[in-house]
Amino acid sequence: MELDVVELSRLQFALTAMYHFLFVPLTLGLSVLVAIMETVYVMTDRPIWRQMTKFWGLLFGINFVLGVATGITMEFQFGMNWSYYSHYVGDVFGAPLAIEGLMAFFLEATFVGLFFFGWDKLSKVQHMVVAWLVAIGSNFSALWILIANGWMQHPVGAEFNPDTMRMEMTSFYEVLFNTVAQAKFVHTVSAGYVTASVFVLGVSALYLLQNKHKDLARRSIAVASSFGLAAAFSVVVLGDESGYDTGQSQKMKMAAIEAMWETEPAPASFTLIGFPDQEARETHYAVEIPYVMGLIGTRSLTEPIPGIDQLVAENETRIRDGIIAYDALMTIRDQRTDAPQSARDTFEQHSEHLGYALLLKRYVDDPREATDAQIVQAANDTVPGVFEIFWAFRIMVGCGFLFIGVMIFFFVRTSFYRMRFPRWSLYAAVAIIPAPWIAAEMGWIVAEYGRQPWTVDGVLPTALSASHLSVGDLLISLAGFITFYTILFIVEVGLMVKYIRKGPHEDVEETEAWMIRHERRLRATGEPDGLAPSTTPAE
Questions:
Q1: Cβ count within 10 A of residue 345
Q2: Please, which residues bridge with residue 166 across strands?
Q3: Three-class SS state of 166
Q4: What DSSP string describes 202-247?
Q5: pTM (2 decimals)?
Q6: CB 448 within 8 A of CB 71
Q7: Sign of the Cα pseudo-torsion (111, 112, 115, 121, in order)
Q8: Dihedral of the CA atoms 323, 324, 326, 330 (nearest 10)?
Q9: Which residues pair with 6 in a beta bridge?
Q10: Could you give the count of Cα atoms lying within 13 Å of 504 in the half-sphere of its Cβ?
Q11: What is the pLDDT of residues 195-241, one digit of tens each?
């Protein structure tokens, strides 16, 4: 297979995935924030909270529709661009995606319609339940997709069947409760909550700077800062858990994140900044913090983290072991039912490293014919792009601590300073609106680019996963995807800006009903009638 085809297929999937993930985190976070706001409305019966629910719910709806449109096309790419991958691991990978469609997507899509069109047809409590079901459906979608992705990072609960020449599931429980998948799910969902919180915070700050919709803006900041603070701490804590899991199951990725070329004595230091040089196998101008990396990667002070050079040497051994498995597999394939038991026994003993032998397919048709130089080259191919992963990780982590600081500031100003915010802080809140998306995209670069050269870590190389397409086919489809997704992104931004400028729709009927109920309560208690118009809906 031509490497150009593989690289173009990777580029196409990477671009469509990154476009899609511009919509996903805001959908996850806004769905929960909107449900919280409607819950407060049901509890207090104050129109301002209904107004907030409708306004932020409208922005959620715009984002949800475009997220669905970009997500559906991604699933088709598995059949179009990655057909051998779909054949090889489809029995395992396809199960979570099928459940996501049946359990989560239909739930989410059904109740989204009820949310937008059921205001006058459902009671307040029923509509609140619908809002929470929309949020649950959104998060269930993320759960099953991330279970599938987590399996690609850490393939458990499955084994290769030499008779069918495919990976087959052996334990759905192990796939479901894969530690990498669970940590990735909570980390990713929490990042979505932070994204929505920063978005609500920034838009509300813009309204305060413009001196309009102040009641809605202040209450939105109160909700976003408290919810966002909890989510931001969760992102950091679960990011640490994800780092630990990576150190256990994807040692090469961990070494690349740290640009650790040689194994250091335990506990390893953390390189705060530096400039990795992959050819020279060193990091220039490195600033290190002692012990930190050892604690993150191993949770101990005595266990070392293997360096890139040591891991390359280990992978060379795995490749040679995998060649033995490949030779036994070819015997089983050629002789089928007449294959000697010794071949099956040999395969079972060495099958764990079959995927490493398949790395040689990039250089020779038959891995058994590979030269020592080709084996060494294939072992070196297991090192991903260190410079890119090193800096993507640090940008992501830096943004995470920035969000904690921002949320603490606004939470304190909301709780103890009567929602009075310095103008500089409001400008800062508007300026950092894009930051959560930058952090999220950097996180996916670490997760996916750091897994190379594997589609399924240690099992199936990326170079073998792609379909047999021509370069021309890929260039045409790539141009089409970029054009289509760019148009959708422009539509998304245009609609968001339009409705943010327009602001919340004043719910006059609900406000008047609230005034009548309030006046009746005042009469019943013997207090003066009526309320000042300026304080009615907001106080």
A1: 11
A2: 161
A3: strand
A4: HHHHHHHHTT-SHHHHHHHHHHHHHHHHHHHHHHHHHHHHHHHHHH
A5: 0.89
A6: no
A7: negative
A8: 140
A9: none
A10: 24
A11: 999 999 999 999 999 998 999 999 999 999 999 999 999 998 888 78
